[in-house]
Amino acid sequence: MQFEVRAYQDGCITSVIIDAVSPADALRQATSRALRPLGIHAIGNSAGRWLKRTSGRFDLLLFSQELLALLEAGLAIIGALDTLAERERSGETKSVLEQLAARLREGRSLSGALETVPEVFPGLFVGIVRSSERTGDLQEALGRYIGYRTRLDALRGKVISAAIYPTLLLMVGIAVTLFLGGYVVPRFAAVYHGTGRPLPWASQLLMNWGSFANTHLAWLITGSVLIVLVLAAVVRATSNNGGIMHLLRKIPVIADRLRTYELSRLYLTLGMLLDSGLPIMQALSLAEESLPVHQRQAMHEAGGLIRQGERLSMVFEQTDLTTPVGLRMMRIGEESGRLGEMMARAARFHDDETARWMERFSRAAEPVLMIAIGLVVGTIVVLLYMPIFDLAGSLR
To answer: CA 295 to CA 284: how far, in whole Å?
Structure first.
């Protein structure tokens, strides 16, 4: 398998293609060539490579990794941005990097330059950089953000991976059922209709559907396409409005896991911000972005109580923004003076718990879906062949 590795070497950034069995092997080979890896992605085919290279989306995680590597190599911040801009192939990303370098040359701080591009750099990232400017440790701040994003992406990847196979299985089952109902059944219906023999009532119902589908095939295809388009539009609109998540929260078991996942993101974000040296109120304000809309009112209430001098653990317990594990971790952190670290540990515990639950759910869903699909397809096949069995019995 081929991997494209972006690396720092001799004062510039280069890209190399490496044949390796895994990303770790590709990074090892790059390091053995005296390269300093900045980023890596797999190359499936030429089309995938073209899409990767022509994508105009600004990759904040990759930017942080490359900037950190250049700063650790001894480059100044403006020189690092110029180096990244020179090697960038995406016009939009190159424009952002050049704009940042220009703002720095005007005398602005890095956080001030980042604020000029709010559509690219979220308030969370800007806040971390601003905090590092007070402590003078931008590299450590970038390292914290990279670790934060890596953990979020890893958990999201686990959730998506656990859902892929059941989803594909369901799609294949639906496709097979539609093929049988829309193509095979009408053919059998035409054959059985010409025999004039009575059919079992269940088979007769299926053959009636087959005759109807054979007569109105064009209308059925058109209607099916329209239904799919309407459903896709509804799902997209509902997703944008948070409607799907609202429906999922009505399911008791899934609602509990969603809440744990959302609070885990809150703990991870707060832990990173507090470790970066931000005051508690500013950290709460920035961490609010990680919460869904329905929980942000609780964060406002928590902020008001903390301004009155209440402890974070007590406030989160009152506003229902904690879990049993998270509450205990916060109390330990408050007593030991390591609140940020303990919140990050609580997030790690819940992330592992969510990943294990998703894996168990996926393993349980797969056999259930296979049984359901097998019953549907098997029922259709049996009903199709029942008249043949009856005919064979009569011939004896």
So the answer is: 13
Sequence-distant (6+) residues with CB within 8 A of 254 are 248
CATH 3.40.50.11310 for the 2-150 domain, yes or no:
no
pTM of the full structure: 0.65
* Backbone dihedral region for residue 34 (phi beyond 0: left; psi -120 to 50: alpha; all else: beta): left
Q: Which residues contact 23 (CB under 8 A, 6 or more apart)?
A: 3, 40, 42
Distance separating alpha carbons of residues 328 and 343, to the nearest angstrom: 10
Of the pLDDT bands very low, low, confident and very high (cuts 50, 70, 90), residue 332 is very high
Listed by start position, the domains of the chain span 2-150, 157-396
C-beta separation of 377 from 384 below 8 A: no
Token digits of residue 181 = 């109902």
Helix pair angle (339-395, 185-195), 10° resolution: 20
Q: Tell me which of 15-24, 117-126, 219-228, 240-249 is least confident.
A: 240-249
Which amino acid would we find at residue 220? L
Q: What is the mean pLDDT of residues 196-225?
A: 78
In whole angstroms, give the CA distance from residue 388 to residue 385. 5
Tell me the fold of 157-396.
Receptor-associated Protein (1.20.81)
